[in-house]
Amino acid sequence: MDKVFLEQLVSHNFTSSEIDxxxxxxxxxxxxxxxxxxxxxxxxxxxxxxxxxxxxANYLTDDGKQFSKEFYWEQDWIIGFESLISEKPSPxxxxxxxxxxxxxxxxxxxxxxxxxxxxxxxxxxxxxLMYKENKERFMLLYSPQERYELFCQSYPDLETRLxxxxxxxxxxxxxxxxxxxxxxxxxxx
Length: 189
Fold this sequence. Notes:
Shape: globular
Strand order of the largest sheet: 1-8-3-6
Radius of gyration: 18 Å
């Protein structure tokens, strides 16, 4: 079992028997680049913990546009809370952007943890809520250039791991706008 994963469980006060139970549920999954974990409109069967690699959740429109929801990388949990709570199919596509090593846990256990008010479920929910609050503030209060600069400051390793198209989608701008922003920053430095 992955050391970081076990440390997360211990830090959330899981007992040894609970850790043994969860460890028995976890299945390692090694995936190539561009592997789809959940298609938009499908019901998720698992949630994931990222050991290595980079994953991406995005919304696809009927006219072929793509809007970046989130990126996930090492030590992140990938959970479709909307599908869990509403018991509806996933509103987004989830895929790998690089080769990835994930730990998979059947979605049914997340449902049980929710009912039981399990400490890990509550921590995962709180973490997701804080991320959403920060992303909303990020999108509403900052100009596109400020969003790009904050993105680079907050996630310096992601800037080198993502394409400009992916970064632009995350920032809510076009790749052309991102190119212009990068040009202005380069000129001013």
